[in-house]
Design a protein that fits this description.
single chain, mainly alpha, 7 helices, about 75% helix
Length: about 180
């Protein structure tokens, strides 16, 4: 079985792979941010009858949940793989603690859940990007597998509870999938 240290060493010995990981890590993050901003613009300006509710929901639920997850991980302050196994990660990171759950992965899955309100295909696309980002964060040595899995599960559960149950069952306007 390969350890995080061995994996990181193998990756770092391949400059092309390190570059690809770094570029994909940033690219996936930026693409997701742009898609999220696009959703906010779409919901605020292009759907006049339901846009206000969709816009508020699309800002409030991800925003509050992001703050919750940030405080939760700060309180736990779990060490990162490079701290536990004493190696330099392939991705540029030197943060101490705050590894569990992965906030990058949480955020991308929360944005995917937010997109499911208006577009299942785009929501699925963002979830696929999220899986890719999770793999990159683990292979890059900045998160354990449990960190990225927890980030994804937390986002999906919060998405189901807030977007489907709370908004759907309690009568807030939901757009059809």
């Amino acid at each position: 079985m390969i350890s995080y240290s061995d994996l990181s060493a193998r990756i770092k010995n391949n400059n092309g792979l390190v570059t690809v990981l770094k570029v994909l890590d940033k690219a996936i993050t930026y693409v997701t941010v742009l898609l999220y901003l696009g959703l906010l613009i779409y919901s605020g300006f292009l759907i006049p009858s339901q846009g206000g509710t969709l816009l508020y929901r699309s800002i409030l639920i991800p925003g509050v949940s992001f703050i919750f997850v940030s405080q939760f991980r700060k309180k736990l302050s779990e060490p990162r793989p490079y701290e536990v196994y004493n190696f330099t990660p392939a991705l540029d990171k030197d943060t101490v603690g705050k590894s569990f759950p992965s906030r990058h992965v949480f955020s991308i899955f929360m944005i995917a859940c937010t997109y499911f309100q208006v577009s299942i295909p785009i929501g699925i696309f963002i979830m696929i990007l999220g899986i890719g980002l999770a793999v990159i964060r683990v292979v890059g040595g900045v998160h354990f597998i449990k960190d990225v899995v927890a980030g994804a599960i937390m986002a999906i559960l919060i998405g189901i509870i807030c977007f489907w149950f709370f908004c759907g069952v309690f009568g807030l306007i939901m757009l059809p999938f």
